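Troubleshooting: if your tokenizer reports a length mismatch, compare your output against this known-good record of 307 residues.
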Amino acid sequence: MLTGRHLIEPGDLSVSEINEICSLAEQIIVDPVSFQDVCRGKILATLFFEPSTRTRLSFEAAMLHLGGTVEGFADASYTSSTKGETLADTIRVVSSYVDVIAMRSPKEGSALLASRYSACPVINAGDGGHYHPTQTLTDMVTIRGLKGTLEGHSIGFCGDLKFGRTVHSLAKAMCLYPKNKFVFISPKELELPEYYVKSVLEPAGVEYTTSERLEDVIGDLDILYMTRVQKERFFNEQDYIRLKDSYILDKTKMKMAKDDMIVLHPLPRVNEIAPEVDDDPRAAYFKQVKYGMYARMALMAKLTGCL
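Known-good structure output:
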């Protein structure tokens, strides 16, 4: 049962629960009219202590499409936190008004703290560099929707693998499904942390390889998950200049890929995917945005007990 549960990190959901949410999202995609009133009378609070465009609007659109309503804020400067109110007190107050809370904060662990004081389900919409579980659900609903299954894929993660919370979360979740294998593509400066390899990949027994060049491996991939190579992570600007163009996906690199490979990106992008790729039928990152709304619709309908 998902009713009344919090979602703080991807590990809060079992394989069967992930499959349940994906299946419901797929039903909504096929027949959205049948779900337009299932959450009538329910209220979502969006508490965004950190700027967001896609995630906040996706949550709000999801609840509105379910027939519910939305309250909240997109700027912490308009809240009582500027007067010194603690997060615990804010959550105690807000959760007495609403049925579910989606919260983003720059502080790691804030969503977990909120869940301990909330009278309703709390969904972590991003807590610093820690977790972003609904992005992981978005990615999985997209993969299942476009590839038909969450099993047996060769998945390439490209760009910032050291600090990328979306990469860490999705790879961890996809370890739960059999026959997936990973290719981690990055400069040495931004390679996957050793602690992640030891605590996630090795215990899962998943097959993985690494590469510093996208061109060397793109032809083997079923899914390419792009992220931004961040200039601010480099100590030496010359290293950044030397490496940055190696991780820009363009038409030339796409010619090396399989005809049915899909390209995902958590967005926002900067220059790591050239605009010329947008018209390629394998470019799925804008479809991914829409799948994210359906994933959040399914999740909130389950957590609030509407379905």
